[in-house]
Amino acid sequence: MALRYSEECEEAYSELLSLYEAKRQQNIPLQTDSAEPVGDRQQTDNTSAQLGKMGTEELSTSFSTAGVTEDTLSLTRTPEKTDREAALRQQIKRLQKIRADICVPKPDPGVESKLSPENAPPAGTRWGQVQKEKPADKRKEKAAVFHELISVREEMSDMRALIRLKEKELRCLEWSLMGQKAQEAAGVFIPERLREEVEHQRNEQQRFCEAAAKAGCDGDVASPLTRSILKELQAVLQREQALKKRLGMAQDSLSTALTDSAPSRKDNAEQIARLTQAHSKALSSYRQIRRKYREQVWRLEQKVAAMMESQHNQSQAPKSADEELEWRREETIL
């Protein structure tokens, strides 16, 4: 950008210089008299040398103001050349505005009023000051960009840690949901198991009753044996009654649990829906954040690459500018 700016400045000032030279040639009267005074001849030589120096100063100070040209170009003007000169001055003003936007430090108004074409510093010193100030600004801008890149990476690491924490919470909720589903499946099989136990106890009780009836019929034959068997049967019947009581209590608790499980199933379904919705929202937000930070990192990398390229071009620009200035100076001297 600086190279293009310098090329445009050189083209504008070279055109202004050519216009000025053409006007000067038109304004110089044709000297047919060969007996011209020596003092006048020396004076014209001095004026031409001064004009050449002014042209070289205008070419070398392409980044300075156009005050010198406004003071020197005060000769008679034709309409076409006047329009061309006005267009060139507008272009110079536009270039000065671009130069102001590039963050080149401007001098104070008091200093600008004091700087005249006579006491202005040489072009080489001003160019050196601008070149010294530009790398410092570029370093500051580069440091700011790197600092921003580091802060973005830190934010990305924080977001990754937060996303990992949310994923752990989601896995815990999924495991708890699976446990609740397993409990519900087990609750469905418990009543069937209890019914099987009740049928088994009824069959055992029926067999014991039949055995007791047979023992009562044969009581006269073996009385001591039947008595011991009857005692055992009575103990078995008591245990069976206790088991029946326990079974009834279990059935009551199971029925209450089943009645309570219906709303809990609804709550579980609502909780599953909320969890799936939260999971989808977390995934979408994570994807959006990841896309945004990737774009931001890509922009920062592009900015750093552009800065490196501009710095490389600016390091090569002074050499080409010095060569152009030397060539212009030699051309004007010749």
UniProtKB/TrEMBL annotation:
It comes from the Eukaryota. InterPro entries: USBP1-like. Residues 131-140, 320-334 have a biased composition (Basic and acidic residues). Residues 28-85, 103-140, 308-334 are annotated as: Disordered. It comes from Nothobranchius rachovii (bluefin notho). This is Usher syndrome 1C binding protein 1. The gene is CT573239.1. Residues 58-77 have a biased composition (Polar residues).
